[in-house]
Amino acid sequence: MKVRVLGCSGGIGARARTTSFLVDHDILLDSGTGVEDLSVEELAAIDHVFLTHSHLDHVAALPLLVDSVGGLRARPIVVHALPETIAALKAHIFNWVIWPDFTEIPHYDRPWMVFEPLSIGSIVELGGRWVRSLAASHTVPALAFHAYTEQAGLVFSGDTGPNDDFWRQVNGVPNLKYLIIETAFANRDQDLAMTAKHLFPIQLGQELAKLQRDPEILITHLKPSDRETIAREVGAWAGRFTPKMLERGDVLEL
Ligand SMILES: [Zn+2]
Ligand SMILES: [Zn+2]
Prior knowledge:
By secondary structure, the chain is of the alpha/beta class.
């Protein structure tokens, strides 16, 4: 399994793109603005989209993706998400006001997009690759994902604040090669981070202290305007770990 980082920024501007990871050629984990750099052929090959939560930086490219390639595909794109996320997308995006409802286009019995509900602990198997949904703790219902093969796996935290349930699950993962975890804000913005249920470097250090495995730690969702500060503070507060800042274009081999 190969995971290509299409976007891992907490914002846009210059080369910054928001959260999206392409697993092999056919599975997306989140659908942020990084998706928009793919070719039409690459977009048309995406069969499954897993969404951590409903926030715009994680779903922004989904409406345009479905519209751009729906007519080129023989099967609908399957969007896997929590029921609350699906309800939010239906109410606020695919509502015929912001965008058409592609679960009824071109016809409700052969749509370009279908929704599949996820729950914490659910596992979806896709040809020798598995995506398991883990608990996240954010301002809206949210998931983390454990994507794995028989050989190795990665965990992607999604957007989250502190969360003991998450670490209990992560500590039970065998062959954990990568942990992609968010640190959205610098320490000076910790009040804002706590209100928005994101991590900041001091808190990341406290969370990593609960990790009993030894994966490579990759930091995502840094605010683009504060990238250097957050990276420096992560280095100072990460304890026994040496996290790397994830970069758009990185490829993770599993
Ligand atoms: Zn969010
Ligand atoms: Zn986000």
